[in-house]
Amino acid sequence: MMTDSSQLTTLWVYLSASPLLGLTVTLLAYGLAYRVYELAGMRAILHPVVIAVVVLIAFLQMTGISYARYFEGAQFVHFLLGPATVALAVPLYHQLDKLRRLWMPITVATLVGVSVGTLSSIGIAWLSGADLQTQLSLAPKSVTAPVAMGISEKIGGLPSLTAVLVVATGIIGAVIGGALFALLRIRDDDVKGIAMGITAHGIGTARAFQMSREMGAFSGLAMALSALTSAVLVPALLRLIGLL
């Protein structure tokens, strides 16, 4: 009869040789992180994405497993980003009447948000002494990851660096967004959702849904619109300021 330790060893040997390792570790890390998040009263600073990222980095460092090997299994979760984004259309549909009334403010807010986010990122990087490639990698940081990486590659940035910056931007937005809205006395869920979606993309949208269904719906819309707008506007802005 196998002991508990031998069973765990057998399970580890099986998983470590299988693409299921990445999937299993990702799900366990997020499950643990979400439990901590609940026990802490859902404080933004302990957002499950933040904790899960730290847990996964620690795990890969301790086991010596390469990111490429880990991603063989984690890519199944990555694939679900597409269907999850499309599913945002469901709560958005319930806000259709309001969208018809607010299409002009939403369009203007998206154009301004993308422009300010892009130019301010590049400006801060330039003032900090960053090289041109780093500046270009920062330009699409507020767009959802797959689109941001595509834009970065086309304009001469580093897609891998852009991906890290996108995740960091989303986490920061999710963590400080609620407090910032309170500080600025912004109470309208439509406005908060649009701001969160434009600046903090998918992670911010997930946080917005936790705050209110209406806020999440508008955040999802803003995230999609900012991704579409950025694909056209970011290269145009970079040409305008002479970086392309």
State the end-to-end distance: 67 Å
User: Topology as H/E string?
Assistant: HHHHHHHHHHHH
The pLDDT mean sits at: 82
| Main beta sheet | none
Instruction: Show unreliable segments.
Output: none
- Provide the number of structural domains: 2
What's the assembly state of these chains?
single chain
- Helix proportion of residues, in percent? over 70%
Class by SSE composition: mainly alpha
How many extended strands?
0
Total helical segments = 12
Assign an overall shape.
globular
Q: What is the CA-atom radius of gyration, in angstroms?
A: 20 Å
- Portion in strands: under 5%
SSE map:
Blueprint: H1 4-16, H2 20-39, H3 48-63, H4 67-79, H5 81-87, H6 89-93, H7 96-127, H8 132-138, H9 145-155, H10 159-183, H11 189-211, H12 213-240
Helix pairs in contact: 2-3, 2-4, 7-8, 7-11, 7-12, 9-10, 9-12, 10-11, 11-12
Write up this protein.
The protein is mainly α and 244 residues long. The chain has 2 domains: 76 residues, no CATH class; 156 residues, no CATH class. It is built from 12 helices and no strands. 34% of the residues are buried. The model has no long low-confidence stretch (mean pLDDT 82).
Question: What's the short story on this structure?
Answer:
By secondary structure, the protein is mostly helical. It has twelve helices and no strands.
Task: Please tag this protein with its features.
12 helices; mainly alpha; single chain
